[in-house]
Fold this sequence. Notes:
Elements: E1 12-14, H1 20-23, H2 34-42, E2 64-68, H3 74-81, E3 106-110, H4 126-141, E4 163-166, H5 169-185, E5 191-194, H6 195-204, E6 213-219, H7 221-226, H8 228-240, E7 246-252, H9 256-260, H10 294-297, E8 306-308, E9 319-321, H11 324-342, E10 348-354, H12 362-373, E11 388-395, H13 398-411, E12 425-431, H14 448-453, E13 463-467, H15 475-484, H16 486-498
Parallel strand pairs: 2-3, 2-4, 3-12, 4-5, 6-7, 6-10, 10-11
Antiparallel strand pairs: 1-7, 8-9, 12-13
Helix pairs in contact: 3-13, 4-5, 6-8, 6-13, 11-12, 15-16
Amino acid sequence: MNGFNVNLPAEIIIKRKITFAFLVFLYTSSYGQKVIIDSILNNQESFYYLDSKDYPAGDRSLPIGIFDSGIGGLTVLDAIVNYDKHNNNTMNPGKDGVIDFKKERFIYLADQANMPYGNYSAENKDGLLREHIIKDVQFILGNKYYTSRTSLHPEINKSPIKALVIACNTATAYGKESIEEFIKEANLDIKVIGVIDAGVRGALDNLSKEEDATIAVMATVGTVTSKGYVNTLNEQLNILGYSGNIQVFQQGGLGIAEAVDEDTAYFDTSLSTPRDNYKGPSINGNNKIDKTLLDIYNFDFTNNKMLCDTENRDDCQVLQINDAENYVRFHLVSLLEKIRIAQVKAPLKSIILGCTHYPYLIKEIKDVLDELYHYKNKDGSYRYQPFMQKEITLIDPAENTAKELFEHLKEANLFVENGSIYESEFFISVPNVTNPDIELDKNGDFTYNYKYGRNVDEIQEYIKVVPFSNKTISKDILLRLENQLPFTYSLIKSFNENSTKIRK
């Protein structure tokens, strides 16, 4: 359990003619959902019970639900709340300077306590992951939340929703069909929108129908393992009639999302030397830092952004990444090494950012790609230029997700007539400290072994869902949100200032 093997086949050639059976999503399964669904729909004594029979159907005044494994999904929400592609009076295409969802309310959930979702598959906990996902949906549909992590009794005045966005690639890959089955079993008519389909459409919009191209997917280990993007690309290439030779490379970005969310098993600013519980890439791990590539990685060693067991970095026997940009450096070099070794005919044209956390690091990704484009070997030859375009398009699935949500609300006549986006609500999961079975580390988070050692079908309250506040979100994360997602940050700030749900 000291790392994860994401050395999947480096090259996946997508051919035009593939049988439908091959295109079936192999990652879907009902395992890890039946017991929790029964608890939600049939056990009135359960904390998770939802009275779906009296659920308000077709109510335009209801908010839109959106969830992710952490704060990464706020990049999807930000794309939605800033979306302006239509005239608000006529609903016809064409921006009018007024955001399209101005009157809509949103309810956002970050399942921070159980993140990162991308690691559950590597620990053979797919069923537990699906259980978490169904619990996320139960919260979004239901009426319960806690005012603080120490509250003993939940409030029961949260609003139901009229549409659901899965702002998490791993949850979409492993749970979208499970969610749709659950909603069908509950006899609810609620549209479910996932980010993977949106990301694939964004990548294909960047290609002509006959074009040969190389596409990369950077995502969590779980999303890569699920082959969610590869399967969806296969499907859409055939359905839409693309005839070119498309090569797809995947890179499981272990540690990137975790560093953004400040998971201490991957990122800890208090450290100056390596630690035993580190889970990221290392010299001797499955995700191997290749010491022969150190010049190409060009890691930043200042301010303990890399942790070495010796003062001389060239003599490191233990080397640990401790900075988000350094994680980006490791994974982009690893990706381009796969492409270089494969000697692709068509240069890398686009990278799908298959994790909602990655848009926080777009500047770093662009800077490192530019650096690698210009990198020269000792003989003066360009190492990667023959295999990558100078300007690689970064595909953020969020905007296509906003487009799909708009089209659904329009078609179903669900746009609210009178409402305010400033009434949106933001919730986050924290460990349930009133549950004596949980195990916490020194920072008050689940220990790694406990988080991934739990078993499916042991239905209990591992977590409490509470409002966003400066007690549940670190100052560093709030500052990042303020700088990079200013409008979404203003909605969070409005929720904190104006909502009576937060009790300090």
